[in-house]
Amino acid sequence: MARICAITGRRPVKGSIINRKGQSKKSGGIGTHVTTITKRKFRPNLQRIRVKLPNGGTKRMLVSVKALKAGLVEKA
Q1: Domains of the chain in sequence order
Q2: What is the mean pLDDT of each run of 10 residues along the chain (76 residues)?
Q3: Are 28 and 22 in contact (CB under 8 A)?
Q4: Is the dihedral of CA 54, 51, 41, 70 positive or negative?
Q5: Measured between alpha carbons, how far is 34 from 7 in angstroms, rounded to an integer?
Q6: What is the pTM of this model?
Q7: How far is it, in rounded angstroms, from Cα 34 to Cα 36?
Q8: Beta carbons within 10 angstroms of residue 15's beta carbon
Q9: Residue 38, C-beta contacts closer than 8 angstroms, at least 6 positions apart
């Protein structure tokens, strides 16, 4: 099962963690330098909930919390 919101289509996106070393120029150093860049994923906050469908039935779906808070989904 893909980790994708059934309502908004939110999915994991790629990003990176950037590690820096050194003292910033602002605080009297010669500047910071990038030492490593590590790949990572930003995952949406998905919850498996029972959703009321327009025809009156219910169905379990993976829904992002952002969609729940916005009122795009009605919990059964």
Answers
A1: 13-70 (2.30.170)
A2: 91 97 96 97 96 93 95 92
A3: no
A4: positive
A5: 39
A6: 0.73
A7: 6
A8: 11
A9: 16, 17, 19
